[in-house]
């Protein structure tokens, strides 16, 4: 019995070595590769309702600039993305009336050169800088206010709310807004107006003043006509008196 065990010992040792070798030879699972570069246009396309904004990002080349800066900056970025409905609610022809430089400023105004989470937006100091800030010596800032369940974004000319978030992970946050953010520096008083002015209604005082003016304008001719009648009557009476003198 002891002899049998001694004979099996080398075999057991060889089997253990072979099992160990097989376990070691199995390839380890590959480590996950680095994430691909972040692409703003791809994020918006996935959202499905940003065709106009994507078009403007492309023709102004701001989309490419944002992608480069996102993937190379430690500050990150925040984008406020207007929906197609937001652009459709503008006065017809508003975008077509903008020059190339004005289109660039409008789109840059929707991009902040810093990453802001929802919590950050609730405590941020206003005005929030945008990529348009400093152009033409303008502020081009955004005022952000609100509570946990609603965050409002104001330009000083229009105000809307953040309705959704397409992305909130650093280094890029993309928030959906229901209106185009129109900067007061471009669309404020005596500047471009994307809103049709309401027709002016005449007030009772204006009607009264207009009636008075018409009467005043008519009165000189009326007085003149009255004077002519008096002169004509006096001349006729004079002729009658003169004729009577000759007869008598």
Automatic annotation (TrEMBL):
The record, for PROSITE patterns, names: FAS1
Q: Where in the cell is it found?
A: Cell membrane
Q: How does it sit in the membrane?
A: Lipid-anchor; GPI-anchor
Tell me which positions the record assigns to the signal sequence.
1-25
Decide whether keyword Cell inner membrane is in the record: no
Keywords in alphabetical order: Cell membrane, Glycoprotein, GPI-anchor, Lipoprotein, Membrane, Proteoglycan, Signal
- Give the Low complexity compositional bias ranges: 214-224
Coiled-coil region(s) at which residues? none
Residues covered by region (Disordered): 193-228
Instruction: Give the top-rank taxon of the lineage listed in the UniProt record for this protein.
Output: Eukaryota
Q: Which InterPro entries match?
A: FAS1_dom_sf, FAS1_domain, FLA_A
Domain (FAS1) ranges: 37-181
Q: Which Pfam families match?
A: Fasciclin
**Family per similarity comment:** Belongs to the fasciclin-like AGP family.
**Protein task:** May be a cell surface adhesion protein.
Q: Which PANTHER family match?
A: FASCICLIN-LIKE ARABINOGALACTAN PROTEIN, FASCICLIN-LIKE ARABINOGALACTAN PROTEIN 9
Query: Under which name does UniProt file this protein?
Result: Fasciclin-like arabinogalactan protein 9
